[in-house]
Each structure stands twice: as structure tokens, then as C-alpha cells.
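The record is kept unedited without comment:

——
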Amino acid sequence: MQDMKSLDLNLLKGFDALYDERSVTRAADRLSLTQPAVSGILTRLRASFGDPLFVRAQRGVTPTPRAHALAPRIKQLLYAVDAMLRPQPFDPAEASFTLSLAATDYALHVIVTPFLAALRARAPGMRVAVHAIEDGRIAERLEKGELDFALLTPETTAPELHARRLFDEEYVCAMRAGHPAASGGGLTLEQFCTFDQAIVSLAGGGFRGATDDALEAIGYQRKVSLSVPSFLSLLRVLRTSDLLAAVPARLIASAPGLVVLPPPIPIQGFTKLLVWHERTHADPAYAWLRALLVETAQSQPVLSVD
């Protein structure tokens, strides 16, 4: 008897056909092979198992006791291999694994929160682990399976990753309801640059952003007196101070207690992407999750400021 290195899966398919059909001719028809080819398979099977397996009978062939003993196990193995090769249908209602994704606090509030509500309704057994964005390691963590998805911008997305555009975001000016700038109905460029402002620096400690680039291009400069590491902490600051800030419109759409005005100059926004690795690209479960995330992200209300 030989070891597994010499045992071809096609030999087992040949055994199964011979056992079911009890005929070399019928087994050849079933396998779409010639009779000599099936006879060759039988020769190799006999060498592999050290037994005749099928002997000539009055009509066709008959299995030996060894073949009878092997038949149910070979059939079970072939069924298991066939099941492995078939795409498995995904039933969200029965899913119970954990989805891991990386997001900033902005993406957590604007994208992940509505996605979670939809997921709980359709796949209540699933868990979601949200990770902080780690610059430079997202592609590596997606490849290793530490992350399944990431919510990024085009500038921070590695070219080898799959990506789906979720939306384009724009900036608006936000301040508390009693802010001196809130009663005028609009902000002039001079007013905007006079008021103290706050900014989000995800890396921490930064006092410059896209707004400053836009102002500098036309010879203006604003007063940035506070830098915070998250958008959600920025919203709390705006509600309790006389600072104003340029903030993403989708973030402020669900933030009560703040007055929103159009910025006095165009400020370059950003595009948000759903990003994933080839590792999960063809998996039906992750394809379903991607579709749900895209659906919920694109169905959220967008604040319109004239």
C-alpha cells in the first residue's frame, strides 16, 4: 500500500463511480472517460490500497470486502471536498462571527453607527470590533486578518487594496447657538478670521488644516486657539465655548445644539472609502457586509447649508 502522496483525488472519484455502477463501462460514461482510462484508475487504486477492490463478475465487477469497507468513507470524503469547493450561502440571521474594522471617530459616528443599527436588525448574532486607525499599518493588518475593513480616504489607501467610494464630504462652519457670529445669518471672510477657532488634529497638536490652506491662497489667516484629537470632543467644545470650527457636514447633521453656517470660502473636503483586502474579496459573508455598509453610509441625511 502506498502513502497519501500518491493518492490522487480523481482516483477516489473513480472508486466511487465503480462502486456505484459495478461496471467499468458505466463508470467510464459517468466520469466522461474512456474504458481504458477507468481500467488504469482501477490499476492505480489496487496499488494504493493493496487490494483488488473490484473483481470481474458475470455482469461487470463486484466489490471486495475491502472495497465495501472503504466505500462509505470515500463517499463522505468526496462529499466534504465538494462542499468545500462550493460557495457557501451566507445567512445573516445565523451569522455569529466578529467583524473587525478600523475607523476614525468621525467615521465611527457618521458611518459605523448607522451600519450597526442595520446590522443588529439583520444579523443579531454578529459582533463588531472597531479599531483605531494606525497610520502605515492598515494594509498589513488587513492582509494578516487583524482587520476585515477600514474606512479611509484615497490618500491613505494602499494601491493593492480593494476600495469602494462611500461619499464625498464637505465642510461647514459650526458654533453654539448663542455665539456672536450666529445671529448675523452669515459669516464674512473678515469675521471668520477674527473669531477664535478650534481644529481637529488626529495625530495631536496640529494647528493647521485644509481651511488654512484655502485662506493662505487668498492672503488671509485665521486664529486657531485649540487643537483636539477627535471630532466628537470638538463638538462638545463648540457647545460650551465661543470657539467656532470648520467641521464635516455629515458629522454636524446629527449634532443638536449647534448653529451651522456656510464657510466664507470654499474649503476642500474629502472622500470616504470602504477598503478591504483580497483575502475577503470573494467571501459571500464579507460581500454582504460591504453592501450593507455602503447602503447605510449612502442613505444618511446630508446637511445642506446655503
